[in-house]
Amino acid sequence: MWTTKTRSISTLLGQCSRCRYVSTASRPRIEARLPLHTQLRRISTPASSPYQILDQTYKRDTYSNTPPAILSKIDRRLLHHPSHPLSILRNIIESHFSTHTSLTPSSPIVSVWQNFDELGFPPDHPGRSLTDSYYLNKEYMLRTHTSAHEVETYRKGLDRWLISADVYRRDEIDASHYPVFHQMEGTQVWPSSDITEIKELNAKLQKELESCPLIIEDETTISSTNPYQPTHDPELAEEVTKHLKHSLNSLIYRLFGSQQMEGEPLRVRWIEAFFPFTSPSYEVEVWWNGEWLELLGCGVVQQKTLDQAGMSYLRSLSRPSSLPYSDKKQCQRLMPDQSHKAGWAFGLGLERIAMVLFNIPDIRLFWSNDKRFLNQFKSGEITKFQPYSKYPPCYKDMSFWVPPISSDTAGEKGKVFHENDYCEIVREVAGDLVENVTLVRFPLFVDSSLPLYPQYC
Ligand code: DAH
Q1: 421 shares its domain with 336
Q2: Which pLDDT value is given to residue 414?
Q3: Nearest residue by C-alpha to atom 14 in ligand 1
Q4: What is the whole-number distance in angstroms between the Cα of residue 133 and the centre of ligand 1?
Q5: What are the tens digits of pLDDT across the range 158-216?
Q6: Which residue of 20, 147, 161, 243 sits with most ligand 1 atoms within 8 Å of its CB, as the best mutation to test the pocket?
Q7: Same domain, 199 and 135
Q8: Is 390 contained in some domain?
Q9: Is residue 386 in some structural domain?
Q10: How far is the CA of 197 from the centre of ligand 1 (A)?
Q11: Both 287 and 425 in a single domain?
């Protein structure tokens, strides 16, 4: 049978933080402090032939560290198989945000600029390290998060969208880590003039949430370490933050509420965080199997990000650069352009949530081509994974003669066939490798004077 490890899924998940970009201070990495040429020598061996990926050619240089095994994952497109658990989860979230446009960028290759610089990652951020990310060359890499598509998507003029995609990070090997996994990015932005509409939406969402068996633990505050942005009208920033929180609480209730034990309210916890591209920023956790499980990162989109996409919030670019976050009057003096936008964004890991909802104990199972895995799931349904042997199926049909079963011979040692005798022989020969012995059939018409030949599988 499938050998499950003794650690629980949530313990495994609890140990793994996919939100690697939370804070530059939280993940000290030895390699990040080494001079770059030392890292390069240790990690990448430049090969002469360029990368050929999705009809594009990428020259190699000293940054190239993406091996063929990783590139081979690009065309698996797990999110496009309707009955794959990741795709089922993706569809459920998409149907929850039914007015959002759902996008799935086809190529995982982005520029280093898109993945990091455009989003405000500092030059020494550990995520940029060759030990952490897959580079094709100095300029191009495999996206490490779906946030890499934020600016280009805002640039298309879309106000509310979801992006689901495969993302790539160099990582350890265990049941909860895989160098390729899937994220979903979601966002909603409004013209600043829509504040009345946002307030109305918030009141409605809050009422809906109050009627759910849901405990929201939120002790986060707006402070100098997690401020509203200086260029935002605090009243608008407050409503956008509320809408972010209501929207995600409601998504989490949609995903986990029905999986709760009867009568037990779902517990969700909000924690202050730091991301270079949002402020204020948060992480959200759910209480699951006796521990807090980290689900997603989110926040109010840095105005710089929207500015780059031509959705700037302020008409005047000659504003003072550092207004105190609480100085509402000064912000108002900056005359926000009523047509320009502000909004929120989130990013979540699909595997982490799917492992819990579908009870999938090992992240590598998502990549299985085994029918015993794939045939278990149905589009639109969350069902619990049924463990199966870790060995590939290998069926052996066996038929053989057994002594006649008759009242004459019954009781005579060695003459009566019993299934356990056969199982004993199987055990002797094959040990624990045999998972199951099944009698397929006894022939229907037998001459009672002849021995029987049962057929086993
Ligand atoms: N991209 C982040 C990560 O992979 C997650 C994230 C955090 C996405 C905050 C967001 C956001 O859109 O607002 O860890």
Answers
A1: no
A2: 53
A3: 19
A4: 16
A5: 999 999 999 999 988 889 999 999 999 999 999 988 999 999 999 999 999 999 999 99
A6: 147
A7: yes
A8: no
A9: no
A10: 26
A11: no
Q: Does 123 map to a domain?
A: yes
Q: Determine if ligand 1 sits within 6 Å of the CB of residue 189.
A: no
Polymer length in residues for the chain: 457
66 and 151 share one domain = yes
The tokens for 114 are 């898109």
pLDDT in tens, 36-94: 443 444 444 456 799 999 999 999 999 999 999 999 999 999 999 999 999 999 999 99
Q: Do residues 50 and 123 share a domain? A: yes
On the question of pLDDT at 399 being above 80, the answer is: no
- Which three-class secondary structure string do you get for 123-175? CCCHHHCCCCCCECCCCEEECCCHHHHHHHHHHCCCCEEEEEEEEECCCCCEC
User: Based on the domain organization, do 125 and 269 belong to the same domain?
Assistant: yes
Asked if residue 242 has pLDDT above 90, the reply is yes
Of all protein residues, whose CA lies closest to atom 4 belonging to ligand 1? Answer: 145
Mean pLDDT of 324-342: 50
Q: Is residue 441 part of a domain?
A: yes
97, 133, 298, 301, best to mutate for ligand 1 pocket (most atoms within 8 Å of CB)? 298
Total domains present in the chain: 2
Q: How far is the CA of 173 from the centre of ligand 1 (A)?
A: 23
Specify the pTM: 0.78
Q: If you measure from the C-alpha of residue 27 to the centroid of ligand 1, how many angstroms do you get, rounded to a whole number?
A: 16
Determine whether the shortest distance from the Cβ of 132 to ligand 1 is under 6 A.
Answer: no
Range of the domain at 420: 398-456
17 falls in which pLDDT band (50, 70, 90)?
Answer: very low
* Atom number of ligand 1 nearest to Cα 344: 13
Ligand 1 atom with the shortest distance to the CA of 186: 12
- Is 19 near ligand 1, meaning CB less than 6 Å away? yes
Say yes or no to pLDDT of 316 above 50: no
324: amino acid identity, one letter = P
Asked whether residue 334 falls in the same domain as residue 442, the answer is no
Same domain, yes or no, for 422 and 323?
no
